Amino acid sequence: MRTVVCGGGVIGAATAYQLARRGVDVILVERARVGGAASGKSGGFLAQDWCDGTPLQQLARRSFDLHAEWAEDLGNPYGYRRVDTFAAALGIGVASVSATPKIATWLAPDVLHRQRLGNLETTAQLDPRVFTETLADAAVAHGATVRHAAVTGLRRDDASGAAAGIVLDDGSEIACDAVIFAIGPWTALAAAWLNLPPVYGLKGHSIVFRPKGALPAEAIFAEVEEADGRALTPEIVPRTDGTVYVCGSRGTDPLPVDPSQVVPEHGHCERLIEATKRLVPSLADADVIAEQACYRPITSDGLPLIGHIPGADGAYVATGHSVWGMLNAPGTGEALADMITDGATRHVDIAPFAPERLSPLDPNDVELRGRIS
């Protein structure tokens, strides 16, 4: 059985890995570079229970457990580790809140409102780019093939209308028995040939420091009041390679058609750098080795699209994971592999994520076209 996975982000790579290790003939098609978009520029923060009480609870908890299993199975070249996680605030009406100096001691003394959000049992981290690349490499080791091309269409069987292959930008086709679209916010570009709800791109900026000394295995979710009164919400995640990742400033530029054209907007990375140095004095003389931006895919109700594509037997979708793509990739990949090889999921009920729960996108939607340049 040949299955084509469209999209070399973490969702596509995790799905290809799960399928290939079960003996499925897999072709992973990626336009540019594996892990080159949001999957290579996210924080790599993982939480066991932060989705509790929502439709994502089962998927998140299963994925959190799989992350630990996969790190052992794959040799953990991507710095997976458990971390303590804290909230903190600087200047956001917290002057009357007593500091807790024994929590996250590497933060500046005037950083207040320090509270524990997670511990070594419930929160973890990894390097998302290396994780995504590792999954793709593991899929190849199990027999998968990676092909670099842009997908421009779905070929259907003339008699049944079922998925029979994909069309590439050079006009060639890849025949298959099943196809999975995991192309993130670029799903909107396929509106003419995929009967799916709208998927939008939520732009975020991030920076990466290389400090003189390593910081503890502690993640910080902060709120900072800037000099002009605006609020910024940096998320600070030290990594095992000694670098420190920081995100927390949204952008408004429309999604470019070409993922390689995603660039930071003026002033956003500068704000993050300034706020982070106020929070973490030891970063004052650290090198900034990356200033970057990415678009996370999000749907109108905030839940991912996972499952069969209506009206196209043999075609599946996996996108719209928003900020939880890195966390929920293992469970998503496992669920799709279950559906293709066994006909049903075994560990996670994906009914809440069925694409047909939302109205399909109108290809002539003026508002959505205005979000893509």
Report on this structure:
It is a single chain. The chain has 373 residues and is an alpha+beta fold. It is built from 7 helices and 20 strands. Strands 5, 6, 13, 14, 15, 16, 17 and 18 form an 8-stranded mixed β-sheet that branches. β14 (218-225) and β15 (231-232) form a beta hairpin. α1 runs parallel beside α4, α1 (10-20) runs parallel beside α6 (325-342) and α3 (57-73) crosses α6 (325-342). The two termini are 37 Å apart. The mean pLDDT is 93.
Q: Keywords, please?
A:
7 helices, 29% strand, 373 residues, 6-stranded mixed sheet
Low-confidence runs of at least 5 consecutive residues: none
Provide the helix percentage: 10-25%
Number of strands: 20
| Protein structure class | alpha+beta
* Largest sheet descriptor: 8 strands, mixed
* Tally of contiguous helical segments: 7
- The averaged pLDDT comes out at 93
H and E order: EHEHEHEEEEHEEEEEEEEEEHEEEHH
Shape: globular
Fraction of residues in β-strands: 25-35%
List the helices and strands and how they pair.
Blueprint (H helix, E strand, L loop, with lengths): L1 E5 L3 H11 L4 E6 L7 H4 L3 E3 L9 H17 L7 E2 L1 E7 L21 E7 L4 E3 L2 H14 L3 E4 L2 E6 L6 E6 L4 E3 L2 E4 L18 E11 L7 E8 L5 E2 L2 E4 L5 E7 L17 H12 L7 E12 L6 E4 L6 E5 L5 H18 L23 H4 L4
Parallel strand pairs: 1-2, 1-12, 2-8, 5-14, 12-20
Antiparallel strand pairs: 3-7, 4-7, 5-6, 9-10, 10-11, 13-17, 13-18, 14-15, 14-16, 16-17, 19-20
